[in-house]
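Cast an eye over this sequence plus tokens and explain the fold to me:
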Amino acid sequence: MKDKTEVLTHIEDCCKELKLPAIRQTFQEDIKEANLKNSSYEEFLYNLLLKENDLRRENGKKNRIRLARFPSKKYIEDLIIEDLPEDARKKLKLLMSLEFIKTGQNVILAGNAGTGKTHIATGLGIKACMEGYKVLFTTVPLLVNQLKESRSAKILKAFENKFEKYDLVIADELGYISFDKEGSELLFTCLSLRAGRKSTIITTNLSFERWEEIFKDPVMTAAMIDRLTHKSYMVNMNGNSFRLKETQEWLEEQEI
């Protein structure tokens, strides 16, 4: 019969090989606690597995947030609701349910700069990561460049296949930069792959009647709007800039 020290060493080795870091870190203390409480084998095993499961869940959340490539951590809870445009205040609770992801619907946040479009989109994305969804954050200009590079490298199909599988894609800053014909066509095709199946959040500073300024082609513009807006949540984000408000408050503080 193996002595206690040898058994503990083998348990630790097994934890390493099976990649069970939570059990490896605490099993010796857990054994002592179980003996003191006279716990059953079932209860002891359950508590060990529960710790490992909790750690994996937490690491999964962190990994999904990391892989989503958010430019900064902006949480829904950090929003100052009173500063949001009226339409956003009305629809925020509904969006926070993430039901739109389950049903594959889009969200379009359209309005002037500084009203919280990116914050809301990022906050919803982080919440989605926390609830197990696979998310990608990208700016529209960056996405167009990646599509062009993928086509040049002859890996466009692989890029589109990966892009299509995200539960939620956040395409930020549509309208800040216009595209050439190739970029417009690539973006149209890429976003169309997800239409009606997977969710996309788009933030834009342009109203729909001005989207032709970006895509240069009235037919493509009409088709893009039609596909993106079908059964989508439209949020009017026109309002006062909270960034301008923060700047004014900061300037006032400097004068004190």
About this structure: The mean pLDDT is 91. The longest strand covers residues 168-174. The longest helix spans residues 41-68.
